Amino acid sequence: MPIKTAAIIGAGIAGLTAALALARHGVRAIIFEQAEALTEVGAGLQISPNASRILDTLSVLDALRPLWLEPKEVRLVSGSSLRLIASVPCGSFARERWGSPYGALHRATLQKALLDAVMANPLCTLHLGRSIDPTNREALEATIAEDADLIIGADGVWSKVRSLVPGGPSPHFSGNIAWRFTIPEALAPRTLDRTSVTAFLGPSAHLISYPIKENAAFNIVAIISGSNTGNDWSGAATKVQREHLLRHFSGWNGAITGLLEQQEKATFWPLYQVSAGHWHNGKDVILIGDAAHAMMPFAAQGAAMAIEDAFELAGKVASLPLAEALDLFEKHRAPRIARLRQRAAFNQFAYHARGPVRLARDLVLALRPPQSLAADLDWVYGYHATG
Fold it and tell me: Which residues form the FAD-binding domain (predicted)?
């Protein structure tokens, strides 16, 4: 029979969305978060139409509309010449083609909107400062303090709940480092487009920039190859690490290298992903979001996949016997995640191309109109999650 109560481990985007999606079906959701307060990890993020339509269904989108930016387009630009290589239209085009908006915002803005909705929902309960040891089932049940039909691991790439899933995925370093920082819009060079998401491309490196409207700032993420230094996602970069970063951007346009040289407080962010593996234990434990399938950010779909997971899981466990629901959820979601991994890998290859491959990339993209490039994304952005 369908479940009545779920315990959610982790109060990030996946966990909060799962609570709201379950409550929509009349299922009680109890969220446990080990942090004493919810703070953002990362700065900006992009919410594509496949995710924004879910947020609209959960009555969260209205809180975001006045705050986020709907970019005019997503632009691919040469990091050396600053020449526009290609673009995909967004704005009103996204609404018309994919039926929902494309937005860029601060991660904390989305988290607050989800949190406010959770706190206002009588079927949702949030416990902060509650560390959970999932390997001790008796202690876990005592912590939950009531019978939960389902445990949802929404605790990220370093998931502890994953230990309850035999044959589950495991994290590993991707070989990529992200450097992230924000700069006030008033101090940003004119090189940074005020209306769009821009990906500056170069050999073995790329840089993403877009305005964060609610903060009057730009979100900047530079991604390069690098060595593993542990799982700290928010450490300040050392002098040696900054020099490593700048070497990857040597030969780029001076406006870009000058911007990077000024950022002494940019954070160092090793990028981890997880291997393929089972997402559930066949009985009463399921992984969602990064806990199940953390991937590289080259398709800008990490948050969107967490939102899709949460929404579609809720629909299945609220209407089907639990074991069947968990199995159908994984079988339904896994092919989409696998395809997105392939897309992200292709984007990394294309973004970081060098030599003749780079020249061929630029030529092929230049010959394709924006609407044709948009059509390639219909399967991503036009997806309608079932919940």
Answer: 6-343
**200 belongs to a structural domain:** no
| pLDDT attached to residue 40 | 62
For residue 294, give its domain range.
5-70+103-170+274-348
Backbone angles phi, psi at 64, to 5 degrees: -90, -30
Q: Strand, helix or coil at 30?
A: strand
Cβ atoms within 10 Å of 363's Cβ, excluding its own: 10
Asked, for residue 243, whether it belongs to a domain, the answer is no
Residue 177 has pLDDT above 80, yes or no: yes
pLDDT digits (tens, 9 = 90+) for 57-109: 999 999 999 999 999 999 999 999 999 999 999 999 999 999 999 999 999 99
Angstrom distance (rounded) from CA 56 to CA 118: 15
Task: Kindly list the strands in the beta sheet with 124-128, ordered across the sheet, starting from the edge strand earlier in the chain.
Answer: 124-128, 28-33, 5-9, 150-153, 285-287
Does some domain include residue 237? no
> 3-state DSSP call for residue 376?
coil
Threshold 0.85, pTM exceeds:
yes
Domain count, the chain: 1
Contact between 171 and 158 (Cβ < 8 Å):
yes
Instruction: For residue 153, give the CATH number of its domain.
Output: 3.50.50.60
**Residue 136, burial from CB neighbour count under 10 angstroms (0-12, 13-18, 19+):** exposed
The answer as to whether 370 is a domain residue is: no
